[in-house]
Amino acid sequence: GTWVYTFGDGKAEGTGAMRNLLGGKGANLAEMSNLGLPVPPGFTLTTELCNWFYANGRRYPDDLAAEIDAALAQVAALTGRTFADAKAPLLVSVRSGARASMPGMMDTVLNLGLNDETVVALAQSSGDERFAWDSYRRFIQMYSDVVLGVEHHHFEDILEDFKERKGYVLDTDLEAADWRGLVSAYKAKVGEILSKPFPQDPREQLWGAIGAVFSSWMNARAITYRRLNSIPEAWGTAVTVQAMVFGNMGETSATGVAFTRNPSTGENALYGEFLVNAQGEDVVAGIRTPQNITEAARLAAGSDKPSMEKVMPAVFADFVRTTQRLETHYRDMQDIEFTVERGKLWMLQTRSGKRTAKAALKIAVEMAAVGVISRDEAVARIEPSSLDQLLHPTIDPKAKRDIFATGLPASPGAARGEIVFTSEEAEKLRSAGRKVVLVRVETSPEDITGMHAAEGVLTTRGGMTSHAAVVARGMGKPCVSGAGSIRVDYHAKTVTSNGVVLKQGDVITLDGSTGEVLRGSVPMLEPELSGDFATLMEWADGARRMKVRTNAETPLDARTARKYGAEGIGLCRTEHMFFDAERIISVREMILSDDEAGRRAALAKLLPMQRRDFAELFTIMSGLPVTIRLLDPPLHEFLPSTEAEMADVAKAMGTSVDKLKRRAAELHEFNPMLGFRGVRIAIAYPEIAEMQARAVFEGAVEAGRVTGKPVTAEIMVPLVMTLAELDLTKARIVAMAEAVAKETGVTVPYQVGTMIELPRAALLAGEIAKTAEFFSFGTNDLTQTTLGISRDDAASFLGPYTVKNILAADPFVTLDQEGVGQLVEMAAERGRATRPTLKLGICGEHGGDPASIAFCEKVGLDYVSCSPYRVPIARLAAAQAAL
Ligand code: ADP
Ligand code: MG
Ligand code: MG
């Protein structure tokens, strides 16, 4: 059909490759059906229909009803049940499914087609009256919530009141007649709230549910999720309508979710949870604590609830075979939803499973090792930014552990912060620069923003596949779920466990790898970078063309970057070395001097310190290239700001506070970003550049003696706009190089290059390359100067720009390829036309952003340079860009 694709009985109109049209869920149901796996028959309404729906004022095309009728007839033929029939009614689920998985973002309606008549037929055909009425009350509750906007709690209140009156504790205490009574009460409640009865006509129910799924594409939750995950609105969602199978038909029925490998560790073992006599989301909702699927997992978890392997061995064996088949077919770890109806297995969903970075690495490396995928595929499968998770600290094993409670190790890594109970509070404290741990009974999609703001998440209910666990793993946030000993009191803002009470604001530490919740702030360890990580990075390095350098000026950063595989320093910001307590006085002396002689005197004091700095960096980088940028920021940044500081400096320098203030006033600028900075300082006070150049060459001589390796020094002149600026500065540098060579008898190989960070420099790159031996694109300033946006002032207006889709992304995070990118590309071309050996790199924040790195590969840069912690991310991103 045009809008409808059917599946079931070993065939399907769609395939797994059609996820753009059928959504991930619909495409994989079709694929599983084509594979001959037991999939309840059904049909998928396409994402194109969703777009049509929105383009036409939330209406449907005229030919849709006939297509749905035909598809329903086909399902009827396969199941022997007819939709809306009073004798043998077909019940269906109505499921949402976008191209990209959006877990829990949109709503599913189960048991649709039930009404006062069909419920009786269901009771008769199943021979289980309790089951039929239980299904009906679930339907009323879900449908009312999702389609009619009558919230859950209305029904939960009725149920709780009823149980209390009857002295029941568990839902399983209720009998058929009890549920029947509740159905009447539920319907009455809906009627009362909406002033019209609960819809009895299955067709009306179906259209209502379809409309609700399409409409959910535009609900606030979905919009937020799309924004956080860069999913275009234009993709739309598909809707799948599928014959119901029942996991709540007694003790031989069950429902569950499973991963073909452990999503936390990557271990190659079936991993999952299920519940006997339950339906749909019961497992993930955390209402009952689920059981393990395999006996091995049960033993490892120390659970006293029997595993699926134990209670239904035949179905279990069938299930294991099916999951293996799916993993082999898809060549990736699968996340599977299934239901067992009276001893028969039904597959309800499969998709590539979300996993932690650690698991992703293990799975990719193992699959490549056995040849299921190639090494390049393994490299391509790891999301570069996810490596961040591995670079997270873990709890120091030697640290004292004051255990407050223990839950499930739902998402690895350690996190610590103040306890907060709501998303609002989490966001508020986060923006005040504080670290928080979000504590909830369970989380729902409304908590996404709070989870983002928190360092980690703790829930008292729910398993390894609960919402909190799935979302936290996706975000790379440590999470402990199902910590059952904890009682949360949202009103009093306290958590209690084993008699210990903690309040909001108290600090706790989560160990997402063991499930422990510890009191206080516990010491942490830096991550281990061997094993699968090292293997995959080696493969990535083999695939990559661009070099990866780091932005570093301290020995610690330089060492960290080397450990993470940096191949040199792409940007050493010398000004950071000027703030050091022991030298800031000399720096200020230099700035405050009235004449060159005074400045030179102060610079002479700074020289040995700078020489030491550079010698140390060259030594650590041991023969790798090091790019040193001459002093860049406006001088006034070094002046004291408070009265007390002023007085201190004046005293130390034997000058007056008044003089200091006068000089500070002279140096004041209205727009320092475009002021007296960069090469302009070297032009006005060449002696500063001379001192720095001398320190570089003397430091290089020293380091060469220590390491025995020749140092390649690259001196970089910032904020150049004309060739003349560069020529003048270069002459000073060359003179210094010659002087030092003469004095020491050692000639240091060096290059002089420039940053391209002004549009004029990009335009005149061909000219500038006559002198410059390398270009480094300073894309932070180049973005500021091209867009005319001050990065430090952008926060107040850039937010709405991204929300309103005016800019695809924050241009200071991801390079504006359309605009700034043109300048980069043009400057690279013009520069190379003049000087074919011109070395090209990038050293803005963009050097560590995967999308921007892909662009750098495209325009043929030689290297990217980024902060030490992003070096592994850049290595992987550069490899993926080259594949
Ligand atoms: P989500 O995208 O939130 O996972 P699903 O559409 O997968 O939503 O539905 C949630 C759960 O509802 C499924 O995991 C499954 O347990 C249950 N479910 C959906 N359709 C059916 C069906 N036809 N028969 C039985 N259970 C179903
Ligand atoms: Mg759901
Ligand atoms: Mg699902």
UniProtKB/TrEMBL annotation:
PANTHER family: PHOSPHOENOLPYRUVATE DIKINASE-RELATED (PTHR22931), PYRUVATE, PHOSPHATE DIKINASE 1, CHLOROPLASTIC (PTHR22931:SF9). The gene is ppdK. It comes from the Bacteria. Its EC number is 2.7.9.1. NCBIfam families: PRK05878.1, pyru_phos_dikin. It is an enzyme of class 2 (transferase). SUPFAM superfamilies: Glutathione synthetase ATP-binding domain-like, Phosphoenolpyruvate/pyruvate domain, Phosphohistidine domain. Mg(2+) binds at residues 757, 781. One of its GO terms (molecular function) is metal ion binding. The active site is at residues 467, 843. Gene3D superfamilies: 1.20.80.30, ATP-grasp fold, A domain, ATP-grasp fold, B domain, Phosphoenolpyruvate-binding domains, Phosphohistidine domain, Pyruvate Phosphate Dikinase, domain 2. Residues 530-881 form the PEP-utilising enzyme C-terminal domain. Its cofactor is Mg(2+). This is Pyruvate, phosphate dikinase. Residues 61-298, 320-367 form the Pyruvate phosphate dikinase AMP/ATP-binding domain. It catalyses: pyruvate + phosphate + ATP = phosphoenolpyruvate + AMP + diphosphate + H(+). Residues 435-515 form the PEP-utilising enzyme mobile domain. Substrate binds at residues 573, 629, 757, 778-781. It comes from Lichenifustis flavocetrariae. Catalyzes the reversible phosphorylation of pyruvate and phosphate. Keywords: ATP-binding, Kinase, Magnesium, Metal-binding, Nucleotide-binding, Pyruvate, Transferase. Belongs to the PEP-utilizing enzyme family.
